[in-house]
Amino acid sequence: MNPWMRKALLAAGAALALAAQAQTYPNKPITMAVGFAPGGSGDILARLVSTRLATALGQPIVVENRPGAGATIATSYVASAPADGYTLLFVTSGFPGSTALYPKLKYDTVKSFAPVAKVGASPVVVVVPAAAPYKTFGDVLEAARKTPGKLNYAAGGGGATTTSLAAEFLKSEAKVDMLMVPYKGSGPALTALLGGEVDLGFDIPSSALPHIQGGKLRALAVTTARRSAVLAGVPTVAELALPGFEVTGWFGVLAPAGTPAAILERLNREINAVLAQPEVKERLQAMGVEPASGSPADFGALIASETKRYGDAIRRLGLTAE
């Protein structure tokens, strides 16, 4: 048998094996990796979606926290996992910036993953402890300008996260100098903020909201173009100081590149159905997350455009991973 024929037969056999695998999917537990510590926005939403998705698929989904290095530890793990639909990655909108912040990564945000589904979108909220002297967003900017480099802020997840990038973009546009203190996720970052270890924080409402509603944190501004429905009384950064400023967080699910299309479509269909459940929609909206819907291709187009946008901004600002 000539080499060309051998390669063709091997490729055909592999394709048949993948097709058969897709038809029986899933027939064992699935792992959903999260690049942040328990208690943060990504972890909360991953568990909410996974619980409902497991019921729809008829198999357990184990949420596995692999925090550190701006979520790149978990991302690298999934990038090298078998492309069989049994190892998934829950990502936040900081994900597209990781290749620009960490140039030595062995994965590519566009080529190394297969998009599954976008889960939702959310603002970033600027918060301070209730006892802090800063009553408004303007107070924070004024203090940062008077004492450059003295104010510090918590960033859950380190460099490649929406919260930390929102802070960096704000610092650049407002021309202020504040020190980032990285944590392994929103949970540890909020603990530090509540304990008075840092002056302010940038977070997603889904994790910060209970502390805002409980009176332990004061929300000063949100980073989206429009006010958040769940924080209607909190003005936008654009309203207060920087016209046109906008950073919107989002969440989604990825699989390793090469995962069969039939599996991606099944997962996408089931996730969209989960997000359409009235009780899930209500819970997400109560956390400040607007549920999403769309195809894997829609989510892939978003990731590609955000990778360029964040990468260009990171290089322009000269940002590096902490």
Record the SSE blueprint.
Elements lengths: L2 H22 L5 E5 L6 H17 L3 E5 L6 H8 L7 E6 L5 H4 L11 E11 L1 E5 L7 H10 L5 E5 L5 H13 L4 E5 L2 H9 L5 E4 L1 H9 L3 E6 L14 H4 L7 E9 L4 H16 L1 H9 L3 E2 L4 H22 L5
Parallel strand pairs: 1-2, 1-3, 6-7, 6-8
Antiparallel strand pairs: 3-10, 4-10, 4-11, 5-8, 5-9
Plain-language structure description:
By secondary structure, this protein is α/β, with parallel strands linked by helices. The protein folds into 2 domains: 29-121 and 249-317, Bordetella uptake gene, domain 1 (D-Maltodextrin-Binding Protein, domain 2, 3-Layer(aba) Sandwich); 123-240, Periplasmic binding protein-like II (D-Maltodextrin-Binding Protein, domain 2). Helix content is 44%, strand content 20%. It has helices at residues 3-24, 41-57, 72-79, 98-101, 137-146, 162-174, 186-194, 205-213, 237-240, 261-276, 278-286, 296-317; strands spanning 30-34, 61-65, 87-92, 113-123, 125-129, 152-156, 179-183, 200-203, 217-222, 248-256, 290-291. A 6-stranded mixed beta sheet has the order 2-1-3-10-4-11, with helices on both faces. It has a 5-stranded mixed beta sheet with strand order 7-6-8-5-9.
